[in-house]
Amino acid sequence: MKSIEKYSNENLTQEMLEIKNSNRNNHFPDLTLHEKAIIYKYTNDGFEEINELLRNSKGKKINNFGHFLNKTLNKLPNFDGLVYRAAHLSKLELERYIAACESKSTLKEYSFVSTSKSRLIAMAYRGNVVFRVLSRTGKDVEKLSKFGKGSLFNEKEVLFRPNRNFKVLEVTKESDYALITMEEI
């Protein structure tokens, strides 16, 4: 396993420059430049590859980037509060949440999961489902995100680490989407 410094110096030079040359460097003084660059990369375009790997392996395989991101997120304080996420689910995927609600069982999300502190912002990513989630250990990355404070479109992002368990409390049909209310366990 590479060190985060070596990984960042080889792969995240642009992200480190962006952090250095913005207000992002003023936040979270306990994080290194390399750690801040990992979060910035995830919120820009780093989420696709790692989340696909995690989903396909049911949370068992993780690459260097995902390992460093998970380690870095562990250093941030927990966000305790409501967050939102819009998504497009297939009928089968939606039925999985309905079944979990009816059986009062938990669901595991294998990948990193991006959410927003704002329901309106989440709904801008329009899908057939809106998740309302009571976060216990999500991490507020708004001040480090590519699309956070200081950007044209602040997503107000709270990020969940992989392999989190959620209890589905309610699934209701709104006018043109399903509202799934979950609690992080």
Automatic annotation (TrEMBL):
Residues 30-175 form the ADP ribosyltransferase domain. One of its GO terms (molecular function) is transferase activity. It holds the Pfam family ADPrib_exo_Tox. Signal peptide: none annotated. GO terms for cellular component: extracellular region. InterPro entries: ADP-ribosyltransferase. Keywords: Transferase. This is ADP-ribosyltransferase exoenzyme. It comes from Flavobacterium micromati.
